[in-house]
Amino acid sequence: MATLKFHLIQRKAQLGKLKGKTTYTAQPIHLGKVSFDDLCKHLAENTTVGKADVKAVIARLAETIPHFLELGYSVDCGDLGTFRASFGSQPVENAKDFNVSLIRPPRVVFTPRMALKYALRGLGFEQAQPLHNPKKPAPKKPGGSEFNPPSGGGIGI
């Protein structure tokens, strides 16, 4: 079974019945970020399209989603999920007192599909060994070839 690693973080509780007491919480350990280039390469290796085509489609998707959001549509991205625009506003007691300046800046909301949302449900957890020196490790050099994602079946796009 695959596991997600974590380490414990010591904090002083600010709220609730433990307020003021020292507590420990789990914090996930992230190994880094998969670059856009590595993502496109991996997708190309597992489909029938090339890396340049994958990059072009994702770049166009990133341009197209805001276009439809600006028009007031939500954007369904299939098994990935749905993007929609949202905003809030400050409340007023009377409708006549409301004006556009009370509206907060819009934001993009992403709602993952159930399969994506629950993809990690079967994972276990493993506590990492405490570091002898709590300083942060030096950042990895970009563009390295350390990323080797697990391969899967192609989706034949």
Automatic annotation (TrEMBL):
It comes from the Bacteria. Transmembrane segments: none annotated. Residues 4-126 form the HU domain. GO terms for molecular function: DNA binding. The keyword DNA-binding applies. Residues 129-157 are annotated as: Disordered. SUPFAM superfamilies: IHF-like DNA-binding proteins. InterPro entries: HU-HIG, HU_DNA-bd_put, IHF-like_DNA-bd_dom_sf. Keywords: DNA-binding. NCBIfam families: HU_rel (TIGR01201). This is Putative DNA-binding protein.
